[in-house]
Amino acid sequence: MVATLMVVMPTVARFPKKLILSRTLISSPSLSIQSGGNLKQFVSPNVSSQSLAIELLDAWDDEYNGVVVDTNSLPSSANAFASALQASLCNWKLKGKKGIWLKILEDQADLVPIAIQEGFRYHHAEPGYVMLTCWIPAEPCMLPASPSHQIGVGGFVINDKREVLVVKEKCSCSCSGVWKLPTGYINKSEDIFSGVVREVKEETGVDTIFLEMVAFRHVHQVALDKSDLLFVCMLKPLSFEITIDEEEIQAAKWMPLDEFIGQKFYEDDPMSERVIDVCIAAYQEHYNGFTAHQLVSKFDGKMCYLYYDSTNNV
């Protein structure tokens, strides 16, 4: 004897919270699913039944006919989550939904294997959570890939004596022992111009202001196989006393420009040499970089910064 399920989904603006399941004992399997006024029957109807309600996962539509599951409303019980996820996937498929986004917090980690078993895949992870996705249609997945780039900044700081602020890093990389520009990665939700000012301050103790972005480098398959963007910025020093970050920096100083560019490392590295050439041209006002302009975009309604050369009254 097996059970027959009758799934009835009410028509509402938000996803229904429950599916009403009708259970009947018969000698062969049968499944009927009702959505709105349409009944889809896969085998045969049954005789007598008793009702059973299953909660659906709380979720909302995204802008691409997909679904975002409400993380804070996930069932705490693994069994309840499994039942609700299966019913919700059935519901979303009937509604023609495509990509499903499921964020699971660290203290909900026991739910991850259940979602994987139902067809979800890892998308990305950050401290405290993992993001899973499921592409429902039987066609190539159109969901965006996981974050692929890390963003770094480098600060070219030169004083009135034509001395460049340089550091030696504590590392065993190819630039070990080389006097170089202060560099680092920007933080989450940090602007490029404020990130480079912060990095210079952290590594050298020198206060600066952002003047312009003079160049950026794009390279692939570096740290953790990610792509890397490094934005080189011209900064004006506001202070001159150096206090190094001893965790990362071996030494820092103001170095005469000619001595800096005369290092063999830069003579043998075409990319680094060209970066310094551009920085010097910007310092001598023979080259115009990009300055930051605050604007609002109608695409998302958020305040943003657009970097461009404004010297030609564009």
Automatic annotation (TrEMBL):
Keyword entries, A-Z: Hydrolase, Metal-binding
GO molecular function term, any single one: NADH pyrophosphatase activity
Q: What is this protein called?
A: Nudix hydrolase 8-like
Q: Which family does the entry's similarity section mention? A: Belongs to the Nudix hydrolase family.
Taxonomically, the superkingdom here is Eukaryota
Pfam families referenced in this protein's UniProt entry, alphabetically: NUDIX, Nudix_hydro
User: Which organism is this entry from?
Assistant: Tripterygium wilfordii
Keyword Hydrolase present in the record's keywords: the answer is yes
All copies of domain Nudix hydrolase, residue ranges: 148-277
The lineage, from the top, is: Eukaryota, Viridiplantae, Streptophyta, Embryophyta, Tracheophyta
Query: Does the keyword section mention Transmembrane?
Result: no
